[in-house]
Write a structure and sequence with these properties.
InterPro entries: GlpE_sulfurtransferase (IPR050229), Rhodanese-like_dom (IPR001763), Rhodanese-like_dom_sf (IPR036873). The protein is of the alpha/beta class. It has four helices and five strands. Strands 1-5-4-2-3 form a five-stranded parallel beta sheet. The mean pLDDT is about 90.
């Protein structure tokens, strides 16, 4: 039975860091301004308010990140309902201590 609140798989920032060397798809669902202030190098900016229109070919897992983990969870639920294999990144950029692109270092 389909559940509206079906669980979305989550991983920690540390787990995400170990996957960045792989060919993963990472969506940053923060606003473009937040994204420009600093984002993970592989991250593609698709703001939460545009996630409903997002389309991706293939069945590759989609990792979703935001600032704290709240918006990414919402985005992940929307993407899961569309049939994508989605993984939410808990803690978001607030907990990220790796390299970032953009912003002030």
């Amino acid at each position: 039975m389909f559940s509206f609140f079906s669980m979305v798989k989550s991983i920690t920032i540390r787990e995400l860091a170990t996957k960045l060397n792989d060919n993963i798809l990472l969506l940053d669902v923060r606003t473009p301004a937040e994204y420009r202030q600093g984002h993970i190098i592989k991250a593609k900016n698709v703001p939460l308010n545009k996630i409903a229109a997002y389309k991706e070919k293939g069945d590759k897992a989609i990792y979703v990140i935001c600032q704290s983990g709240m918006r990414s969870k919402q985005a992940a639920q929307q993407l899961k309902r569309k049939g994508y294999n989605v993984i939410n990144v808990k803690g978001g950029m607030n907990q990220w201590s790796g390299k970032v692109k953009g912003g002030k270092s």
